[in-house]
Amino acid sequence: MKKILLSFLAIFLIIEEWLWDLLTAFGRSLFHWLKLEQFEQWLSQTGPTMALVAFSIPLLIVAPINLLAFGLIANGLILQGILTEVLAKLLGTLLVARVFALTKPQLLTFAFLNIIFTTITHWLHWAHDKVAETTVYRWMKQLRA
After folding, report:
1. How far apart are alpha carbons 111 and 28 in whole angstroms?
2. Residues 72, 80: contact at Cβ < 8 Å?
3. What are the pLDDT digits (tens) for 93-108?
4. Are 110 and 52 in contact (CB under 8 A)?
5. What phi and psi, each to the nearest 5 degrees, are found at residue 47?
6. DSSP of 92-124, one letter per residue?
7. pLDDT for the residue numbered 84
8. Residues 48, 125: Cα–Cα separation, whole Å
9. CB 58 within 8 A of CB 99
């Protein structure tokens, strides 16, 4: 059972890595296409409080989409709800990843965010190390390459 769970986790982690890389590159291109380089420059140099506000905005944008997805599922529109949730996750990851990349040093000056970031990073490294030992993960990495 442990091998099966680690195999599913391996697949999940590799897909997450692909999506993170893809969405980060897409976000960079989108910001460039929208000519938001000056905004990015400002955002990367802003103070911690403004960085926290900027980091909160994508979360506030995605929250109503998540509620819509939940409402669709609750009303029996399962496929529409799942697709809406997938859209919310992709949009959220795109926006949050971009803003976090630009404001990480400022955000990590907040003790609670630093603790959360450090804890999550530790868990991810631990899980990644466990999963990297699996055959499925090595196979998926070769497939990715």
Report:
1. 28
2. yes
3. 888 888 888 999 999 9
4. yes
5. -75, 170
6. HHHHHHHHHHHHHHHHTTSHHHHHHHHHHHHHH
7. 95
8. 26
9. yes
Closest CA to 85 of 64, 100, 56, 99: 64
Which tokens is 60 given?
């506030």
CA 108 to chain centre: 17
The torsion of the CA quartet 6, 10, 11, 12, rounded to 10 degrees, works out to 90
pLDDT band at 49 (very low <50, low <70, confident <90, very high): very high
What single letter denotes the amino acid at residue 102? L
The residue among 59, 65, 58 whose CA lies nearest residue 80 is 65
Residue type, 71: G
pLDDT band at 132 (very low <50, low <70, confident <90, very high): confident
